[in-house]
Amino acid sequence: MKKMNKKEFKQCFSRRLAEKFAMEVSDASPSELYQTLGSLMTSAYSQDWRQTWQDYRDAEQKQSYYFSIEFLPGKMLKSNLLNMGWLETVEAGLLELGIQLDDLAEIEPDMALGNGGLGRLASCFMDSIASTGLPGNGNGIRYEYGLFKQRFVDNYQVELPDEWLQKGNLWEVRKESKAVNVRLGGNVYLSSDEMGNLTPHYQDGMVVRAVPYDTGMVGYQNNIVNTMRLWSVEIPAEEEGNYRSVEARRTVEDLTSVLYPDDSNEAGRRLRLSQEYFFVSAGVQSILRYYKELKQPIDKISQYVAIHINDTHPAMCVAEFMRLLIDEENVSWERAWNLTQKVMSYTNHTIMAEALEKWSIPMMKSVCPRIYQIIEEIDRRFVAEMTGVQSFDLIQRTRIIQNDQVHMAHLAIIGSHSTNGVAKLHSDLLKSVVLHDFYELYPARFNNKTNGIAMRRWTQLANPSMSKVLDETIGKTWRKTPGDLRLLLNYENDDQVLNNLAAAKLTNKKRLAAYIQENCGVEVNPHAIFDVQIKRLHAYKRQLLNLLHIIKLYLELKENPDLPIEPRVFIFGAKAAPSYHYAKSIIKVINETASLINNDDSIHNKLKIVFLENYNVSLAERIIPAADVSEQISLASKEASGTSNMKLMLNGAVTIATLDGANVEIRDAVGDDNIAIFGLTEEEVYQYYENKTYHAAAIYEQDNVVRRVIDTLIDGTIPNIHSEGQEIFDSLIKYNDEYFVLRDFEAYCIAQMSIDKAYKYQRRWLQISLRNIANAGRFSSDHTVQRYAEDIWQIEPVFAHKDDRGVTKH
Ligand code: NBY
Fold first, then answer.
1. What is the arithmetic mean of pLDDT over 767-784?
2. Atom of ligand 1 nearest to the CA of 451
């Protein structure tokens, strides 16, 4: 990538502005300036983008394709600048032109084509795959509308559409010439020739055009630009005549209109399945088209292509790949199956039963009839192969089609060579409980890949003040090699360094406090403990446990306003699924409790609650650097990994956590003294399930503190929550508290007291915080994707073909 000095940049920038808008800098709006900068950047990296692609092709390198129904990159302006090596020059150059880079960054809408952890992980991986020089691509859907915008009205969550494409998208390139057709619906009949070869004949149904929009994934200062390919639906030119009515057109356009449509009704579910098949078919077709250009025999495809199935949503990759090999390439079933298994791999992200996808047979037959036929045949052969080898019961439990439903996880496991979980504990649970039957069948397929995070975004971009302290203390190598953060341990007794870190944290807290003041009208004390829980709102993540502890503190302060506790600001960020009634009730109750507590002068500002609207990647970048305490309090065994836990630790927050997901590995990294662990273990949770001995009502009866706290939900202490308070009360007492909130309550309160106590000894607190930063390097997603590359995809970095200036060797 061309390096520029400040002067050159200023010239280029002014010239580009004149070309694009016929304007002077002083006349341009932030939006015009943003467009200008973006266009300068894309033209600068497009050369490398093409070159990267050519290098992969010339070297005939094996490539991986990460199929994910969600990507959550957030804003790309600054991360691209950083990765291009332009950030400092541009920031300084703009400043001389009287422009704040951050004002331009604000213009860019968050690209929010994902719900939460799973989508954000996919984007961290895209960054790391490019940054480690791996030949890997993303494949997904270009939703017209991203994840809804959250607003609070009367303290209730209200969802607004996210029209992120309204002003265009700088980073994408429409590649009309790479479009493919996808067939949906209709019927299919098989005819057989004298050799017994089957040919499918299609009747009715519709053919839609899948048009790719490619976005460059710029690697960190390594001249590599990979591709994230997102598919958008269009009506094929030759079919225009069949789509005269607005309604007919809409059924097609709806296909890539919204992320994660409501799946609580028949029509919504159908749309969701169609989306899945749409991006799977388009992606697999384009991979095969590329492979054929290489002119290699089809039997070698697994030496050139790896397809990754991110959760079950793209599991139909297995059947689509089979379809193309058998129907289009005339490969025999046995050979095709062998290749498919070698090409495919699958990651599981949850043990929650309701998130394990199943589709009814009639639905699948009507959306993708040929795919259903192939799945039926995979299932039939699986049963035949296992019969006589495995017990009848085991086969029935593991087959793909059961009780008129297609089990997508089973398809993904049977049709691939690798199944991984996303943290050690989670992967162990897959083997021992959730997917135990499959582990019996295919022990060698199971492995762990603990999640990771894109370190650069979560330090250099989000937390420049801490980054500066790190540079001054341990040098700059940590920016490329996060493991070098360990050097910080040499300074754990250095008061100067501890104070510098404290000052950086305070800067970030003041900045967040200003944002809170502006957006919530709540004044918070930047010297208070900033206690943060940011993640999707879900019962198993137990935002309720956090709230009950806050209520307990409030009641205690009401009784004794001089209670010697450190002032605390409890900060929440969370969206609830639009149809998830219970989660929305929790939001309402937190918000009402916030109104009550924040306006109660009698507690001397010792407690504040702030629920920030519309939690997204950009807001995360604001909150995380300002956090003192990281809440990771899911019921043990339920959180597959978590990734905000890693981001918060990296930014020096101290974790209060159950032994769940990657919290276990964070504990191992920092040691028991630098984390507050509490609550039931995964074994204890499973024991309760086995013995059926959990009685939440008994805790309520016997524990006066619990009773007092829970009663505030229904006794009018918290105003305006008549039905929501009752609903939550009932979930705990009448329906026996599915996530053991009451069981863990006392232990949680004790752990919170230890946090309060630790914070009082500032020096020790700062040391704990330092040790968290120092030990976070192992959670870099650079490291995680390298494990995927070596163990699962068998792909190699392209650096092998470049000299150290990034120039390709021929
Ligand atoms: O994936 C999350 C896990 O909860 C978290 O522990 C983990 O760190 C992260 C990355 O591995 N899972 C997640 O975000 N899941 C979803 O967003 C999701 C999306 C769709 C559906 C289910 C879950 N679905 O049923 O359609």
1. 98
2. 11
> What letter does residue 175 receive in the DSSP assignment?
-
**What is the average pLDDT score of the chain?**
96
Are 584 and 611 contacting, i.e. CB atoms less than 8 angstroms apart? no
- Which candidate, 637, 645, 647, 707, places its Cα nearest to that of 676? 645
Per-residue confidence (pLDDT) for residue 243, from 0 to 100 = 83
**The length of the chain, given as a count of residues:** 810
CA torsion angle 456 459 463 464 (round to 10)? -60
Q: Do domains 59-75+110-451+788-801 and 455-680+742-779 have the same CATH topology?
A: yes
- Taking the C-alpha atoms of residue 56 and residue 46, their distance in angstroms, rounded to an integer, is 16
Distance, CA 121 to ligand 1 centroid (Å)?
10
Residue of the CA atom closest to atom 26 of ligand 1: 355
Pairing status of strand 63-67 against strand 305-310: parallel
Mapped onto helix, strand or coil, the DSSP state of residue 161 is: strand
Pairing status of strand 607-612 against strand 568-573: parallel
Which residue owns the Cα nearest ligand 1 atom 23? 355
Please list every protein residue whose CB sits less than 6 Å from any atom of ligand 1.
115-118, 121, 349-350, 355, 357, 422, 451, 639-643, 661
Tell which atom from ligand 1 comes closest to the C-alpha of 121: 10
The counts of H helices and E strands in the chain are 31, 25
SS3 5: coil
pLDDT the model gives residue 196: 81
**Per-residue pLDDT tens over the stretch 63-72:** 999 999 999 9
Nearest CA to ligand 1 atom 5: 642
> Could you report the per-residue pLDDT of 407-457, keeping only the tens digit for each?
999 999 999 999 999 999 999 999 999 999 999 999 999 999 999 999 999
Name which of 152, 156, 159 is nearest 588 in CA terms: 156
Output the DSSP codes for 263-316: -SSHHHHHHHHHHHHHHHHHHHHHHHHHHHHTT--GGGGGGTEEEEEESSTTTT
Atom of ligand 1 nearest to the CA of 422: 11
Query: Which residues have C-beta within 8 Å of that of residue 27, sequence separation ≥ 6?
Result: none
Class for the domain spanning 59-75+110-451+788-801: alpha beta
d(CA 319, CA 176): 26
Averaged pLDDT for residues 117-133: 98
Q: What is the pLDDT of residue 799?
A: 61
* pLDDT, tens only, 692-709: 999 999 999 999 999 999
In this model, does residue 804 exceed pLDDT 60? no
Q: Residue 368 corresponds to which tokens in the numbers above?
A: 């993708």
- Check: CATH 3.40.50.2000 for 455-680+742-779? yes
pLDDT tens string 7-32: 999 999 999 999 999 999 999 999 99
Do 226 and 130 form a contact (C-beta atoms < 8 A)? yes
Q: What's the whole-number mean pLDDT along residues 455-476?
A: 97
Alpha helices in 59-132 (DSSP H): 77-84, 87-96, 101-107, 117-131
Mapped onto helix, strand or coil, the DSSP state of residue 215 is strand
Clarify whether 410 is annotated catalytic: no
Q: Which residues contact 33 (CB under 8 A, 6 or more apart)?
A: 17, 25, 99, 104
Question: How far is it, in rounded angstroms, from Cα 192 to Cα 200?
Answer: 9
What are the tens digits of pLDDT across the range 618-632?
999 999 999 999 999
- Domain residues of the chain, as ranges? 1-58+81-108, 59-75+110-451+788-801, 455-680+742-779
Joined together, the tokens standing for residue 749 give 């309160």
